[in-house]
Write a structure and sequence with these properties.
Elements lengths: L18 E2 L10 E2 L4 E4 L7 H10 L3 E4 L3 H6 L10 E4 L7 H10 L4 H18 L1 H11 L7 E4 L6 H13 L3 H9 L1 H4 L12 H8 L3 H15 L2 H9 L3 H11 E2 L1
Parallel strand pairs: 3-6, 4-5, 4-6
Antiparallel strand pairs: 1-3, 2-7
Helix pairs in contact: 4-9, 4-10, 6-7, 10-11
Length: about 250
């Protein structure tokens, strides 16, 4: 459940999918603190007004989950925003496979669904170093308010957001609702993959429940629980998780 008494989505003229992760209610009746952690698509097309909005939010740190070359191709447009950028690079693995499937005619909705489901399974297995950097930075209060993002704010950002909210005690139903809101808020897909039929294209650009579920199935199968994953793979022991909850929950 989301407390709608304060704005949740931050409208940006040159960006999209920028939103406050605060306002969600936890199982024990507390609320995730507002204006502390934000999620977003890339910040490489921001306007002067957008940069003023980030400054008004007091953003201190931007954690970039994109791959090294991916980040270099679309650098942040944040001149004048007094913040630092932390690279938590998770290299993209899907682009070449999508292009190859389009080229050889094997790009179908079913193929793309399988491709993305398998890709999400790799987040807890292969991508822990990038997520570890994110959570280490996030856990240090001197870096907040903090924004983390990938390209669309959908997949890598989606998994990271779901993990954070889960560790804070937000219900899975609400976590999934937050994840799926990308389908309303991300505009960067406009004009992409015009050569594909609508169903195949949708499997690529949409956040879908089976994708996120696949990642958390691996978390539980390989580690036992999200908390165990956080401790074993991300370095967040019980004390660190309690500090994070103390910092990011109120009420």
């Amino acid at each position: 459940m989301l407390d709608d008494t304060l704005p949740h989505v931050v409208p940006l003229k040159g960006g999209s999918n920028f939103r406050d992760l605060g306002g969600y209610r936890t199982a024990d009746g507390r609320t995730v603190r507002r204006r502390a952690v934000f999620r977003s698509a890339h910040l490489g097309t921001l306007t002067n007004e957008d940069r003023a909005a980030l400054s008004k939010l007091g953003v201190r740190t931007i954690v970039d989950l994109r791959g090294v070359n991916e980040a270099a191709e679309t650098p942040h447009l944040i001149d004048g925003v007094d913040c630092r950028i932390v690279g938590a690079h998770i290299e993209p693995q899907l682009g070449d496979r999508i292009r190859n499937a389009v080229a050889d005619g094997t790009a179908t909705p079913h193929f793309m669904m399988d491709l993305f489901t398998d890709h999400y399974r790799e987040y807890p297995r292969r991508c822990a170093p990038g997520f570890r950097t994110l959570f280490a930075t996030l856990s240090d209060g001197t870096h907040r308010p903090l924004v983390f993002h990938c390209t669309a704010g959908k997949d890598r950002t989606g998994f990271a957001s779901a993990l954070l909210l889960t560790l804070l005690g937000v219900s899975w139903e609400t976590v999934m609702e937050d994840y799926l809101r990308t389908n309303e808020l991300w505009t960067g897909h406009i004009g992409r993959h015009p050569e594909l039929d609508i169903d195949t294209r949708a499997a690529i650009i949409e956040a879908r429940t089976p994708y996120l579920e696949a990642a958390f199935e691996v978390v539980r199968a390989d580690f036992g629980s999200p908390e165990a994953f956080a401790e074993k793979a991300l370095g967040l022991d019980v004390a660190a998780r309690e500090r994070l909850r103390a910092d990011l929950l109120e009420g």
